[in-house]
Amino acid sequence: MTISGKALLAGVMGWPVAHSRSPRLHGFWLERYGIDGAYVPLPVAPANLAAALRALPLLGFRGVNLTVPHKEVALALCDEVDPLAHRIGAVNTVVVRDDAKLRGSNTDAFGFLENLREASGWRAADGPAVVIGAGGAARAICVALLEAGVPELRIANRTAERAQSLAAELGAVARAVPWAERGACQAGAALLVNATSLGMAGQPPLDLPLDTLPSEAVVNDIVYAPLETALLAAARARGNPVVDGLGMLLHQARPAFEAWFGVMPAVDEELRRFVLADLGG
Ligand code: ATR
User: Fold this and answer.
1) Which of 84, 86, 194, 209 has the fewest CB atoms lying closer than 10 Å?
2) How far apart are CA 150 and CA 59, in angstroms?
3) CB of 189 shorter than 6 A to ligand 1
4) 3-state SS, residue 198
5) Domain at 109-246, CATH from 3.40.50.10540, 3.40.50.170, 3.40.50.720, 2.60.120.380
């Protein structure tokens, strides 16, 4: 769709930014909903982030997404940060308010929960959750699970100190599990999430035994390339319901699109096919 002089403007700031799927994703929705708007890649070096964010209201931008390496630094650069983004420790969405102030939020927790609920019918009260990993993605997922009300959260990470400090920060419901017990700690769990990039094309496989996991537990991998990781294939083969990582990527984009362009966009099969074709899958 061509845009007019009144087009609503948004984009994604990253360094580098060329790998970002967000312009294609938001572009698909702009086209689908017939919105006079544009979403562009904005290569912004770390040293320029503060100036680039401050320029948004001057340029008439509605806001931006932030990707690597800007998400954590941006906490201190926004005028107002949602409590959830504070808790996650990262901002992935900036909205320019009517008074030109910048509001930072994080939509990863929303994206994770929406995808999980929609794809599996999982409910927090179903039982304990096990999260593998303690990096940025794992933090957002752990915060999401606690906000949703899981009764217990077990975090296993190769580097034990990272799991311990994350669990300590999250409070009594969360506890760190030694990496050697990443299999055994699945006993009685209702949800298992791989929140590392292991299993992604070009990365090492995730070495995770599933023999103690109850067969009704939902298994969710945040990796989406390949869509069916070795973890999901193994879980499916033993009868567990599985949820792939593509849905989180798509759902996390929805609240930002709504904030900038005024329509809450839908995730459906057509969008999944469009993005998968883009991924070469
Ligand atoms: P992100 O922000 O994408 O989550 P990250 O902060 O680099 O990225 O976190 C990557 C996660 O994958 C971490 O949990 C990391 O474990 P460490 O904290 O021990 O580094 C995990 N990870 C990466 N490579 C791994 C490997 N070969 N074996 C086990 N865990 C690995």
Assistant:
1) 209
2) 43
3) no
4) coil
5) 3.40.50.720
Pocket test for ligand 1, best of 158, 223, 229 (most atoms within 8 A of CB): 158
Task: Spell out the per-residue pLDDT of the chain, length 281, in tens.
Answer: 799 999 999 999 999 999 999 999 999 999 999 999 999 999 999 999 999 999 999 999 999 999 999 999 999 999 999 999 999 999 999 999 999 999 999 999 999 999 999 999 899 999 999 999 999 999 999 999 999 999 999 999 999 999 999 999 999 999 999 999 999 999 999 999 999 999 999 999 999 999 999 999 999 999 999 999 999 999 999 999 999 999 999 999 999 999 999 999 999 999 999 999 988 65
Answer yes or no: are the C-beta atoms of 122 and 144 closer than 8 Å.
no
For the chain, give the longest Cα–Cα distance. Answer: 59
The response to whether residue 193 sits with its C-beta less than 6 Å from ligand 1 reads no
Ligand 1 pocket check for 8: Cβ under 6 Å: no
3-state secondary structure of 215: coil
Has this prediction a pTM greater than 0.85?
A: yes
**Ligand 1, atom 22: nearest CA belongs to which residue?**
196
The residue nearest atom 16 of ligand 1, judged by CA position, is: 158
